[in-house]
Amino acid sequence: MVSPPTRYLVFFQYFGTKYSGVMETSNDQAVVGVQNYLEKAAQNLKPIVPIKFHISSRTDTGVHALCNSAHLDIQRAPGKPAFNEKQLIYSLNYHLKPEPIRILNAYRVTNSFHARFSALSRTYIYRLLMGCTHYSEIPVFEKDLCWAPAGGYLNVPAMQDAAQCLLGTHDFSTFRSLNSETPFQSPIRTVLQADIRPSSGFLSHHYEHRGLEFWELKFRSRSFLYRQVRRMVGALVAVGQGKLTPRHIKELLEIKDSRAFPPNAMAPPSGLFLKSVEY
């Protein structure tokens, strides 16, 4: 008698620099997705049916996750009991080393649960470094983990004013990049949180004399459009540099055209982290 599959929700984190993004790619590519490594590790659990990770939140090349999530179904050989959560975490992490990918938690869920569609909200943070006049001044331990915009310091109060324009329900067409899903996706999104707060760097208290400042931009919404967060960050940084005003952010929203977004203003992937997926 074949036992039915058991569905699990897993939370996992990864250092995104070396991957093509979180989503699966063909294995013959030079750089593949985090999902490729997750599914390769899962095959060591000797399931009857190959295990597929259904990932809740897409992240691009170079974007990191403090905590992403996925669901998976595991069907074991007849007579074998379902894995308990601790066994699953330990086994997957054992087979993921030495990759910078870690399973944080696992929970058994009902077969109707879906990691992507059951999510209530997603929270992203973007790390900015101010005070660098040249990229060579970025601390070596912060490489690929923040963005140091040209020109040193930014007008944070102006950025905070502009961020308020992004709160609420809007047509975010101007703040999305176009991809194959664009024609099928509504551009209407509700941004529940848009904060800019001081933060800290890795061991930065040991080099306070350098006058570097770390700031975190935090955005929360049920879901985001393709590259929406990076475009919002880029526009807010342009406000901080004096290239745009808070009023321009409002106008960009009203234009509802991705081509109206200022050229080369999108923030790079390196400072972006998926912080959490809420259920």
From TrEMBL:
Assigned keywords, A-Z: Isomerase, tRNA processing
Domain spans labelled Pseudouridine synthase I TruA alpha/beta: 13-117, 162-279
Binding, substrate: Y124
InterPro entries according to UniProt: PsdUridine_synth_cat_dom_sf, PsdUridine_synth_TruA, PsdUridine_synth_TruA_a/b_dom, PsdUridine_synth_TruA_C, TruA/RsuA/RluB/E/F_N
A GO MF label: RNA binding
Pfam families: PseudoU_synth_1 (PF01416)
Active-site residue list: D60 (nucleophile)
Class of the enzyme per the UniProt entry, highest EC level: isomerase
Gene3D superfamilies: Pseudouridine synthase I, catalytic domain, C-terminal subdomain (3.30.70.660), Pseudouridine synthase I, catalytic domain, N-terminal subdomain (3.30.70.580)
GO biological process: tRNA pseudouridine synthesis
Protein family per UniProt: Belongs to the tRNA pseudouridine synthase TruA family.
Name of the molecule in the record: tRNA pseudouridine synthase
Organism: Phoenicopterus ruber ruber
